[in-house]
TrEMBL record:
The record marks H95 as: Important for activity. InterPro entries: 4pyrrol_synth_GluRdtase, 4pyrrol_synth_GluRdtase_dimer, 4pyrrol_synth_GluRdtase_N, GluRdtase_CS, GluRdtase_dimer_dom_sf, GluRdtase_N_sf, NAD(P)-bd_dom_sf, Shikm_DH/Glu-tRNA_Rdtase. The lineage of its organism: Bacteria, Pseudomonadati, Pseudomonadota, Betaproteobacteria, Neisseriales. Substrate binds at T49, C50, N51, R52, S105, E110, T111, Q112, Q116. GO terms for molecular function: glutamyl-tRNA reductase activity. Its EC number is 1.2.1.70. This is Glutamyl-tRNA reductase.
Amino acid sequence: MHLLAFGLNHHTAPLSIREKLAFPAETLPRALESLLASQAAREAAIVSTCNRTEIYCSSPDPHAALDWLCQFHGLNRTELEPYLYRLEASQAARHAFRVASGLDSMVLGETQILGQLKDAVRSAEHAGTLGTLLNGLFQRTFAVAKEVRSNTAVGSSSVSMSAAAVKLAEQIFPSIAELNVLFVGAGEMIELVATHFAARNPSCITVANRTLERGQRLAEQFGGNAVTLAELPETLARYDVVVTSTASQLPIIGKGMVERAIKARRHRPMFMLDLAVPRDVELEVGKLDDVFLYSVDDIAGIVEVGKEARQSAAEEAETIIQTRVAEFTDWLKKRETVPLIRALRDEADRARRHALEGAMKQLARGDAPEKVLEALSVQLTNKLMHPPTQALSSGSGAEHDAQVQAIARLYRLHPES
């Protein structure tokens, strides 16, 4: 079994590729079960966000695990290979530690990814795909993230994607307070962005969601109202700002819908921020006049603000991570000896049971207990001493010298020369 982490992220792949590998939350249980059923992995957890899709697994064949990913999404492996990374053992642990600590994020030091990682682990637990190896990895991952947050300033002065959304809108409109803002979706990302917009007191806040009840619960937090997704074609024209982040596998706002909205608005500009992966807004919408469409990758420049101030703290974090990776690697090596330890104990137990059976038979015949115990001790001693004695009596040269030193160390012997 190999500890393996593979996937792609905003560093290695554009949004057009990332959205092809996204795992909506409702598909995760089926995907995890499918991966284990394929025998490409014994344990697995899937992390899927707008910036990354990563699979952490215990796999006997890394190539088989990659093949499963391509087959699950119906993609050609050669199409994805240029964008994929594959990390094993200590490198996989280092990557997980960096991701959880916010060092691999679009926003250096951001904290949202840690919650997303924990959600991925919970999903794996519920699906029954999290075993001893991955549990050990992720428990250490969360501990490292906490240590980095507590002992460095890597998260200070960061501009979140949510705050960046407001900054983008303010580059187009003079005042948020005069705008009608529409949020499409009711998940965590939308809630975060809505919080930042609400702080600017926009003229109107509306939440559009597939289920009206959930949309209303979110809208009430910000003194807004809610509509269903089915009402979008009739209501879209009312809004100056549209922020969308749903789990839909297909775009829910098309070019025709936006064209009609712009016409009804008499060509007043509309700012649209699509934070969904896969995208919620058709790419062609960005070509329309009077529409300013941005994707999650387009706001990368804004979230760079304050990065230099956090870079020195990131170096401190890397030092912490390096130490914890070494400890994890040591744990992995010790795990590799578990089968050998188990086999050694099984062999010793077989010898014990065999000797005990013989002793019980002797006692049943009426043999003196003292003689039976003596014979039992001699038999066990001979059985346990046979392998090392045989090893010392065989071999030659460097191999024999190594065996002598190993046995002396194991048995804590210091024979006089």
